């Protein structure tokens, strides 16, 4: 069976590589030529445990090859990004482009699967009519299903195999055919439903997380006003058997949690008041970090306009090398507006809009303040005594991720503390 995986990024590449190791002939298709070249050499710069080994194996065994043009296949799996526009609406242009490039290649018996996250109704109302321009009938001549990805960056390969999956076919036969394919590599359960329910279920998963993180963030602000430690409070509340409050933080980033809930707001603005407010609370966290920084500068009697500030971490979360939608961006921008010199230190992020310092000692030397934005494991082991001595007088430490327990003489502000 020949399968084209359209979009060989964070989701498409691991999916393509796993399928290739299960005996399928996989063609990875992407508009990015340098990505095609590097994957064709068995390389990936996605920092996921085990991924580079499986990609190398898939390419070496000739199970996986890559090209720019889509060619005839038995199955097409669409794994392209769905970013949001400035108006916070889903940008479906990559999905539409992928579908348009399939139309002329579609043959009787083909199966098309959409993995990309989309607003409810997209598979039925956008994808189906587009693909039917081929003259074939969806659900009869070819089969169509939405199978949303739900893997956690940082544990991607494990979750790709272990997690349960939801498959929403546009009819029963479409769902069953997609299930037959996913069953070859998924150890979790596979649940069949219709495509719109699958689309909403995926969005509800990420919205549930966004709303709960917003609640944790709101609790952190309340704890600051009360003068108590939010982490102690959350740990105690979580001893209740039905309570699981996540952690507050400097902001919510990544390509899913701050974006996907907007796809619900887009189609149900009247009925999504809680979701909109939660998104706003999360979006305001970088601004709150700025107020903690300003407050610490006041205590230190230092002028923020002529300061040197080190941002610790631009990854959107700990131990990933992905900086998409990172809360570090609005923090850096605001500090630069103040006139501060901003130094960025991150041990693993490779692609960022600003230069990254790789040497922690060089980064902190003669700095006035350190701002922890990301909870990288390395930051939990920092030698704060040594760093203190390399910095300017009255050094400031702002902890946006609650990973510092002893402030070691720094002028300290911790989120929710
Ligand atoms: N964060 C907090 N507090 C927490 C946990 C996370 O502030 O307690 C922040 C992180 O720092 C990060 C953001 O939230 O900036 C998102 O991180 P995450 O680990 O919650 O989620 P993602 O974006 O890495 O992956 C999510 C996952 N969804 C759920 O857990 C419901 C993953 O399973 C999805 O496949 C992925 O979105 C996706 O691609 O949709």
Q: Can you describe what's shown?
A:
- The protein is α/β, with parallel strands linked by helices.
- The chain has three domains: 2-188, NAD(P)-binding Rossmann-like Domain (Rossmann fold, 3-Layer(aba) Sandwich), CATH 3.40.50.720; 203-278, N-(1-d-carboxylethyl)-l-norvaline Dehydrogenase, domain 2; 284-414, NAD(P)-binding Rossmann-like Domain (Rossmann fold, 3-Layer(aba) Sandwich), CATH 3.40.50.
- It is 40% helix and 14% strand.
- It is built from 16 helices and 13 strands.
- The chain has helices spanning 12-20, 33-40, 51-60, 93-103, 122-131, 156-162, 172-182, 195-226, 230-237, 260-267, 273-283, 285-300, 328-338, 360-364, 377-380, 384-390; strands at 2-6, 25-29, 64-67, 75-78, 111-114, 143-146, 165-169, 190-194, 308-312, 341-345, 369-372, 396-399, 411-414.
- The strands form two sheets. The chain has an eight-stranded mixed sheet, sandwiched between helices.
- Helix 4 (93-103) links the parallel strand 4 and strand 5.
- The chain is elongated, with a radius of gyration of 23 Å.
- It starts with a strand and ends with a strand.
- The mean pLDDT is 97.
- Bound molecules: ligand SAJ.
- Ligand SAJ is lined by residues 117, 149-153, 205-206, 209, 213, 246-247, 249, 252-254, 256-257, 316-317.
């Amino acid at each position: 069976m020949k399968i084209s995986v359209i979009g060989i990024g964070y989701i498409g590449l691991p999916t393509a590589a796993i399928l290739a190791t299960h005996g399928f002939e996989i063609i990875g298709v992407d508009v990015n030529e340098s990505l095609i070249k590097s994957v064709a050499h068995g390389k990936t710069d996605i920092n996921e445990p085990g991924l580079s080994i499986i990609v190398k194996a898939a390419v070496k065994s000739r199970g996986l090859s890559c090209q720019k043009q889509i060619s005839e296949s038995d199955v097409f799996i669409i794994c392209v990004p769905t970013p949001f526009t400035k108006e916070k609406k889903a940008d479906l242009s990559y999905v539409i482009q992928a579908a348009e490039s399939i139309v002329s290649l579609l043959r009787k018996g083909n199966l098309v699967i959409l993995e990309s996250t989309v607003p409810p109704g997209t598979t039925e109302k956008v994808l189906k009519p587009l693909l039917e321009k081929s003259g074939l009938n969806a659900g009869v001549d070819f089969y169509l299903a939405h199978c949303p990805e739900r893997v956690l960056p940082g544990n991607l390969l494990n979750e790709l195999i272990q997690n349960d999956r939801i498959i929403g076919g546009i009819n029963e036969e479409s769902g069953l055919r997609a299930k037959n394919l996913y069953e070859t590599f998924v150890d979790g359960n596979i649940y069949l439903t219709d495509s719109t329910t699958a689309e909403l279920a995926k969005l509800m998963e990420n919205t549930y997380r966004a709303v709960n993180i917003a609640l944790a963030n709101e609790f952190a602000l309340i704890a600051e006003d009360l003068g108590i430690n939010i982490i102690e409070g959350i740990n105690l509340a979580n001893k209740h058997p039905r309570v699981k409050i996540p952690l507050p933080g400097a902001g919510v980033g990544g390509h899913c949690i701050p974006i996907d809930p907007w796809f619900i707001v887009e189609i149900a603005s009247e009925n999504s008041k809680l979701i909109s407010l939660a998104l706003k609370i999360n979006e305001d966290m970088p601004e709150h970090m700025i107020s903690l920084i300003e407050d610490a500068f006041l205590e230190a009697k230092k002028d923020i306009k002529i300061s040197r500030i080190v941002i610790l971490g631009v990854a959107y979360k700990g131990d990933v090398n992905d900086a998409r939608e990172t809360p570090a961006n609005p923090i850096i921008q605001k500090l630069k507006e103040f006139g501060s010199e901003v130094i960025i230190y991150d041990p693993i992020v490779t692609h960022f809009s600003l230069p990254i310092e790789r040497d922690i000692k060089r980064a902190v030397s003669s700095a006035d303040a350190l701002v922890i934005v990301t909870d990288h494991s390395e930051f939990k082991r920092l030698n704060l005594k040594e760093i203190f001595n390399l910095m300017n007088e009255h050094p400031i430490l702002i902890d946006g991720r609650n990973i510092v327990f002893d402030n070691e003489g720094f002028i300290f502000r911790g989120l929710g503390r």
